[in-house]
Amino acid sequence: MSELLAFISHQLKDGLLPWSVQVAAAVRFKSTPAAIEGLALGNGILPARYQRNRNMISVAEQQQLFQSRIAVIGCGGLGGYIIEELARLGVGEIIAIDPDIFEEHNLNRQLLAAPCSLGRAKVEAAQARVNEINPAVMITPIKEAFCTANSRVLLEGVTVAVDALDSISYRLELAAACTEIQIPMVHGAIAGWYGHVATQLPGDRTVQEIYRNWVAGKGIEKDLGNPAFTPAVIASLQVAEVCKIVLGKGELLRQRKVSIDLLAMEFHEILFNAPAEVIYLQGCDLEPVRAAG
Prior knowledge:
The chain has 12 helices and 10 strands. By secondary structure, the protein is an alpha/beta fold. The chain folds into 2 domains: about 1-55; about 70-290, NAD(P)-binding Rossmann-like Domain (Rossmann fold, 3-Layer(aba) Sandwich), CATH 3.40.50.720. Strands 5-4-3-6-7-8-9-10 form an 8-stranded mixed sheet, sandwiched between helices. The chain has a two-stranded parallel sheet with strand order 1-2. Helix 3 (about 35-40) packs antiparallel against helix 4 (about 60-65) and helix 5 (about 75-90) packs across helix 11. The longest helix is centred in the C-terminal third of the chain and has 19 residues, at about 230-245. The chain is globular, with a radius of gyration of 20 Å. The model is unreliable at about 275-293 (pLDDT under 50).
């Protein structure tokens, strides 16, 4: 181990570990880029790929991200962007869960979809993408539908669960499972020009409150559809919440949600621990956003 550490330490550039050295070390010492990254971060050495993180994320915090295990449930519109950003951020392990394959209607908005990937499992495309952009990140593809029955197995050892589902019933199952297992959940939903984000910590019931009037069906996404930009916006906010949870910093969207109307370019905050008469902090018709699922 000391020989390996000396090898990388002698080849730093401006105090940073170049990717070429990370790969060379993995080959020379019969290791992996992930193991080299873990060793470097553990010794206060920042891989060069994260140098634009360091003014807001310390080396110790980068190590926290590397040691985290994030489950992304759904690898479609939201999930593709979430997985991409988590991998680039430096999350150490991603669990990608989705039973579906790519279809032609996915091509307008799903980052992992391409004509050549039609018919391919979404989790396989997610794995290939992560291996391409950051091979130091471990990704486990699981081609299964999330449900209450398999929740404990799928979420075992997970730091944060990220909701990228398109079904309200499965979202509610995920929220219940996260409460039972005692892990945080970052919820996101999109429909047309609209979307919302909320973070639920163990003991909270934010997601259940958001959908308290739901009876059946997927929500209005089926009617409004989704353009290319809405999932990118909402997914980015979800990843920001994941980052804050892992690092224990900043103010989370806890017991509240931010609803976004991209057509009017308006953001609204809705509280779920306040009396009903003051639940809307900013005036405006929020009905399209409130229903976005």
